[in-house]
Design a protein that fits this description.
The chain is an alpha+beta fold and 347 residues long. The chain contains 12 helices and 10 strands.
Length: 347
Amino acid sequence: MAKLRKRGEEIRSFILDIVENNTTKLIPKTMDKFNITRQAVFQHIQHLIKQDMLIHTNHGVYELRPQEEWSETFSISSNSAEDVVWREVVGPRIGKLPDNALDIWYYGFTEMFNNVVDHSNSKDVLIRIKKTAQTTQMDIADGGIGIFNKIKNVMGLLDERHAVIELTKGKLTTDPKSHSGEGIFFASRMFDTFCILSGEVFLSHAYGEDEDWILQNNAAQNGTRVSMKLKNNTARTKREIYDKFSDVDYGFTKTVVPVRLAQYGNEKLISRSQAKRLLERVDRFKTVLFDFSEVETIGQAFADEVFRVFVNAHPHIEIIPIRANADVTQMIQRAKSINSEEQGQLF
């Protein structure tokens, strides 16, 4: 079923690309590209027309639906209900989309809107939606304390960059009695792109096989702005993302930590204190993947703290390094080999 959904997404995206570029021979090119019948192509075209992504004009040609933009500012109070705002205002503006895409949008909006209500201390929130035939984008902006600043203050962290890496791990909330800390973690992985701009930090995640996070310095931004973007014909589902990070009981047990976000500027990851910051709260998971992409090297003390000291203290947690280059891999293996030698001496 997932393969069929993915193939349908590819076919309809191809059709929209052809129409957008004013390329002729839409039907035969789609038939040749995907080795499908003329009838099958028409079925996909009708699917796009039904969802208001394509228009069949009086001249007998297909055109993309016009781009739509909408925005509205809402006053925030303690009883602002995200499901009501979705049902009465935002959902109708999102419009006709496949059920799986609407499920993702409902999750993303309600989680982010609720965060504004419960955490931002903002008096109002701006919601902006931009919809084309290919994609839908939503921005949710408030004028509050700022998400990274709030995390830093409540948790006593070094700075906003330290708050960023804690946020990417998941299970982070400044109000554990009312929130699980899963909203941003899962939303950031459901959308094609998910961005947070707050304070002096811009954090962005792009969907893919690998964890693709971008962290940049930014001119001071008051409050928090979250931007989410999704292809209208995505084959992705919420369950697919949940399953990727859950065990058989659907518990949130797995996380991927982008190690490069722990680096400040051109500094190297060499000390135990850096490793300890990276390891904060990972004991809440059963499986932790440390993604070493774009990390050129690590020091002996850093590797020892993560792959020997922590592993010995938490034998029930699986620590897995991924996307490490040769130099980093060698240092990790050295720490692991010391651990193996120490264990061998016990017998």
